[in-house]
Amino acid sequence: MKPSSHFWAGVRAELPLLVGVFPFGLIYGTLALNAGIPPIAAQGMSSILFAGSSQFAFAQLVHESTPALVIVLTIAVINLRHMLYSASLAPFMHDLSMRWKILLSYLMTDEAYAVAVLNYERVGGTAGAHYYFFGAGLALWSTWQISSALGLWVGASLPAALPLDFALPLTFIAMVVPALKIRPAVAAALSAGLVALLAYSLPYKLGLILAALTGIVVGTILESRVERNAIPLHNKEEPK
Amino acid sequence: MTIWLIMLAGGLITFGMRFSFVWLLGRFEVPETMRRALHYVPPAVLSAIVFPELFLSENHLDLSLGNARLLAGLVAIAVAAWTKNSLLTILAGFVALLVFETLSLAR
Lengths: 240, 107
Fold this sequence. Notes:
The complex is a heterodimer of chains A (about 240) and B (about 110).
Chain A: H1 3-34, H2 39-48, H3 52-63, H4 68-78, H5 81-89, H6 98-106, H7 110-123, H8 129-155, H9 167-176, H10 183-198, H11 206-236
Helix pairs in contact in A: 1-3, 1-7, 1-8, 2-8, 3-4, 4-11, 5-7, 7-8, 10-11
Chain B: H1 2-23, H2 32-39, H3 41-55, E1 56-57, E2 60-61, H4 68-83, H5 86-106
Antiparallel strand pairs in B: 1-2
Helix pairs in contact in B: 4-5
């Protein structure tokens, strides 16, 4: 297969995910505008940061005049998971040139990762596989740029009475709830939420960081405990 | 000005994390504990943002039936758990918010 066929195969594999990404971009643009962020900066975030949930958080925190350092810290914590993607894709990208490594790292979002890693697991780090990744990543990138620009454009003409800021918690609920498949994840979400409420009055939004760390620790500890208990469980009966 | 600094710092950090292991040539295995912990970052961070949005009104805990955002959020959570469809979740949440707000105004 030619590089271009790999590229288009990647684009095609990404298409179903784009349907879900497009409305998020629209909402981001609208939210950013509502938060009083200049459109150029809001669009800049889409191309420089290029990471949906952290951009939502950015818009919200700027709206609440959170100190810059706390916003950057929050962005970093939210985007920590990309290290996991990086670690998981690194073996397949081992032989690429530095230029490719930089380009594909820039395009490494949740949705592009999901598509690329499946392909890598099928074909390994072959020559065509990074064109596939590039196709998926570029398709997502273009969709994100266009949809957030459209949100910035359309959002300006929406009536102010609409409770658009509620789109943020709704978007996050739509992202988190379906992912709560195991108990430790539910415990992580609940404990983080609870701490966020208790520590809300802490200065500089530190409550948010504290809450996130609590949730991460609770989830991790519970998971290792569940695993330790899982061994004798198998001798009795299968759960479910 | 500050917004651009946040953008630059946030962008560099995010790119750095995406590039980290690719750059290190995959020579290092991610420690198991860290791999595990990373899975819990999204639910923890996102819940930490969502809870105050739903439970607090004007910085005070509001568990009353007049808290339309909390009720609408619960509807959205139910729809999300049931359908796993993000568009439906957002739509349901908005409709619920409008309904509950109208109801609490009428009272």
